From TrEMBL, chains A, B:
Domain named Smf/DprA SLOG: residues: 81-307
InterPro entries: DprA, DrpA_SLOG, WH_DNA-bd_sf
Source taxonomy: Bacteria, Bacillati, Actinomycetota, Actinomycetes, Micromonosporales
Top-rank taxon: Bacteria
Organism: Micromonospora carbonacea
Family per record: Belongs to the DprA/Smf family.
Protein name: DNA processing protein
GO biological process: DNA-mediated transformation
């Protein structure tokens, strides 16, 4: 989509915190530019949102702030990714339907999909998240937890799974490090600007992640790691991966909330148990007791056993080997399905049957020929052997 | 029942290992004496059993061996408990219905109720097992497991629950010790004669249990702790208590088999998790992964939360507050229900309506008067206010 759309998404994220459901709905109805205009004109559908926009607006001009952020990102070698980009991770769109049972707190209600991501690192974001598992847990992890998280990070990366976490001290850092040590791909989803990843103590780790993996954030460069942002961010960690593994957590910790979001999103929710004598395993054991669908795992093999399956809310990846026909766009499919089952036909007749113009028909026929689905003969075009139309198979 | 029955049960246990289903069925059909005669006459219904009886028979006269065992037990201050004794634990009769999924091994199939128990210690066996929880686990327990089992034993005993285990090294011993340290009741269910409890290294512990709790075995004094007997014994540990807690277990250990028996018997099956890095927790985690009805517990509070509820196979205790009427025997209830709803009536007429003799009617009326349910008036007996018969409420 246009630069306007991109700028508007950045401006909207700055004006209102990510995840705000009413903003996401406005963008769907009016486009990002229209939604931004409405909000700046004081037309936000909720009083709270109107006040928030007005307050931010007094700090600066939203479009100018957004333009600055984009310029700053360009200087950092970072990029903005929006839903129309090829690398947009489709899985985060499932957040549309996310509903946390008994949600009353703002962070539990405002769990709409992100409007954009800031990304630093060479991999296309969507590809990196295609086969990904989150590993989360306590910042004040014990040596036991750090050991387990490192092993998990290493083992998953070693089997070509991307390890996603939040870049925090403790379990998060151990999981990232394990993945890096395996020479694998790891993604840190931050709750602040990717130019100032938090915590500072993990700066060297963030540098390695930025080089070998991805640093990702919904917040623009320069944004501060405010406390509520971690919980807002957790919905992305939960939704963007096939499953989340909780390694250590005290009672009611942020990590247990990530797992609750994974459960609500229909992702695989996995928990590593620990000594019952450890306060850092209380949250883990609580989750296992309270959620029958949270699965106890003791290592990589168990995790792979889970995420290897298809979760209820995930688009099922093609099970059958991909055939050329699966790659066709609508028009090419129409042309292919309009081919006579026996004998050949001319382009004009085919275009008429397929409901496309002759120029398009010729373009699609050349593609179909390339894919070995159609043969050009003296008397026109014919189906190649074994290429009966999908509707006839 | 008669001394003959008791002697026959001892002889049958000596001739055939405890738990043999066909022997238990014969006892139900013919009585213990009849079953013994049939077996000694070579009439066992299965070839394997016939051979086993014949082999044992060459070692001695079954009745003489049984008489010796009874005499030996008397000298030890031990007693034989059979199903007609008041202290027989009714819960072990549920073993009639126990069926282990996919059972093919002898120890998984031959899980019939015991024919008798040898008991050493002052408490009536049934009373001791009335509010009881089993705590089982690895012999090669880690300090972590020993700590947890000791705490569980202590905590359960402290709350007036009997702690049942197998007297083995490791988890078993820790659970018994915890209970003893709390000044509570603990029962060791042995797989050998109660005069030679195994292992010898726990001799001092067995002495304490024999004084403050109970040593129990299905095998007669002098019986050796043969390896298969431990698994046979485990069905009793599982069935005689409201639930079994597994603390530490390597993969496929005897303790996990006790828990499987608890699950099959409809008892509460509870598992304490541990570090995933410990080989001694592998069996525990396996059970939690494989059995949705096995419950993760981290301490006494969780255990009590489970066993405090009514298990499928347990007689439900009265939920409503007990009223005087609930204490009445059948005759008293009949008399009460025969009272006219209004006005008074004479004893003769009441006795006739209730279908009891006058003497009984008078006795029951005096009880009902005592309980405040009936009033004696000049014109006979009348219901006290608020004491309408149960059928009328």
């Amino acid at each position: 989509m246009s630069d306007d759309d991109r700028l508007a998404r950045v401006a909207l994220t700055w004006l209102t915190e990510p995840g705000t459901r009413s903003v996401h709905r406005l963008v769907e109805q009016l486009g990002a530019g229209g939604a931004l205009e409405l909000l700046l004109d004081g037309g936000a559908p909720e009083e709270r949102l109107r006040a928030a926009v007005a307050a931010r607006g007094r700090d600066g001009d939203a479009r100018a702030v957004a333009a600055d952020a984009l310029a700053r990102a360009a200087r950092l070698g970072a990029r903005l990714v929006t839903p129309t980009d090829g690398e947009w991770p489709a899985t985060v769109e499932h957040l549309r339907r996310l509903a946390l049972p008994g949600a009353t707190r703002r962070v539990d209600v405002e769990t709409a999909p992100p409007l954009c991501f800031w990304v630093r690192g060479g991999w296309p974001l969507g590809d990196a998240l295609d086969r990904a598992v989150s590993v989360v847990g306590a910042r004040a992890a014990t040596p036991y937890g750090v050991h387990v998280a490192t092993e998990l990070g290493y083992g998953l990366a070693d089997r070509d799974w991307t390890v996603v976490s939040g870049g925090a001290f403790g379990i998060d850092a151990a999981a990232h490090r394990g993945a890096l040590n395996a020479g694998g791909l790891t993604v840190a989803v931050l709750a602040c600007g990717i130019d100032r990843p938090y915590p500072m103590g993990n700066a060297a780790l963030f540098d390695r992640i930025g080089e070998a993996g991805l640093l990702v954030s919904e917040w623009p460069p320069g944004a501060e790691p405010l406390r509520p942002r971690f919980l807002v961010r957790n919905r992305v960690i939960a939704a963007a991966t096939r499953g989340t593994v909780l390694v250590e957590a005290s009672a009611r910790s942020g990590a247990t909330q990530t797992l609750n979001r994974a459960l609500a999103a229909g992702r695989h929710a996995m928990v590593v148990p620990g000594p019952v004598t450890s306060a850092m395993s209380v949250g883990a054991h609580e989750l296992l007791r309270e959620h029958p669908s949270a699965r106890l795992v003791t290592g990589v093999a168990h995790v792979l056993e889970e995420v290897g399956r298809i979760g209820a809310d995930l688009a099922p990846p093609a099970r059958a080997p991909q055939r050329p026909r699966d790659l066709l766009d609508d028009e090419a499919t129409q042309v292919l399905e309009s081919m006579p089952r026996r004998g050949a036909t001319g382009v004009d007749r085919l275009a008429a049957r397929a409901g496309v113009d002759v120029r398009t028909a010729l373009r699609k026929l050349s593609l179909l020929e390339e894919l070995g689905l159609v043969r050009r003969r003296a008397d026109g075009y014919a189906l190649a052997t074994g290429a009966a139309p999908a509707s006839g198979t």
